[in-house]
Each structure stands twice: as structure tokens, then as C-alpha cells.
Write a structure and sequence with these properties.
mainly alpha, Hypothetical protein af1432, 2 domains, single chain
Length: 151
């Protein structure tokens, strides 16, 4: 195992430890740190489950959103394009493009026939946390409800 990768993972976990507010999260962190190196290697080598082309997935999602009119579907795509732009060239640890995560979150929610604000929030939920985009940016482009849900 590459020591730089292991060091990066452990540093990331330690950084996020300060953000943990629930004892369950702390327990998960402790458990992960106590895993032997072979388990960490197995974690690094996993086969991504979030595969697929994000644009194709979005097309399928919008087809499932038969209850939305064209303008509402355009608003959802506006959120997708915004998130995709701001997560451009970002990869997950697995090598997957980052945008696949918010698209898969939205796909998961589709069984509950979410409204436009919920769909936009699913796509945008990490832009304030992980990109230079601010609450005010999201509020300007998508409204206060979506900005509040993303924050």
C-alpha cells in the first residue's frame, strides 16, 4: 500500500473528527482507525457502485419525473449543470467523477416523487461545503428554500 495514500486517508479522517457531533460517528471513526492495513487496502480497492454516465442518469431521472412539467424539469437540469460545473474535474477516492454522487442521491429519492426544490437540493447538497460556492450564490440561483436545505 502506498504510504502517501494511507497518510492522506488518516489525515482526512482526523480532520473530520472535529466535525463529529454524534457518538455513532465517533465509534465509526474509531473502528475504521483500528482496522488492519489489509482491511484499509480492501476499502481502497472496492468496485464503485456509483457507476454510469451522469447525463444518461439525469435523462432517466427526468423521464421518471413524469409529474413535472417542462419548465420544472429545466429547473432541475439547471441545478445539475450548476453542480456539475462546480464539481468539474473533482474525483472521488474511488476515481469516479464527483457529480455521480449527487445524481445517485437524486436517483435514490425518485421513488418518493420529490418536488423541484428537493431534486435541486439533492444535486446541490455538497456545493456549499465542497466548492467556493456560497449560500448567497445558491440562494440567488435557486431560491432561499434550496439554499437553506443545502446549508
Amino acid at each position: 500500500m502506498d504510504e502517501a495514500i494511507l497518510s492522506s486517508i488518516l489525515n482526512s479522517l482526523i480532520t473530520h473528527l472535529t466535525q463529529f457531533t454524534h457518538s455513532t460517528q465517533f465509534t465509526q471513526f474509531t473502528t475504521f482507525c483500528l482496522m488492519d492495513l489489509s482491511r484499509i487496502q480492501q476499502y481502497l480497492d472496492y468496485t464503485p457502485f456509483m457507476t454510469g454516465d451522469p447525463k444518461s442518469l439525469m435523462k432517466d431521472i427526468l423521464e421518471r419525473a413524469h409529474y413535472l412539467d417542462i419548465k420544472q424539469k429545466e429547473e432541475v437540469m439547471k441545478a445539475y449543470n450548476f453542480a456539475n460545473k462546480h464539481h468539474a474535474n473533482v474525483k472521488r477516492l474511488s476515481g469516479e467523477p464527483y457529480i455521480i454522487h449527487p445524481v445517485k442521491v437524486l436517483e435514490f429519492l425518485m421513488d418518493s416523487n420529490p418536488d423541484v426544490a428537493t431534486m435541486q437540493t439533492a444535486l446541490l447538497h455538497d456545493v456549499i461545503e465542497d466548492t467556493p460556492v456560497t449560500y448567497e450564490d445558491v440562494k440567488y440561483h435557486f431560491g432561499e428554500e434550496v439554499a437553506d436545505l443545502c446549508e
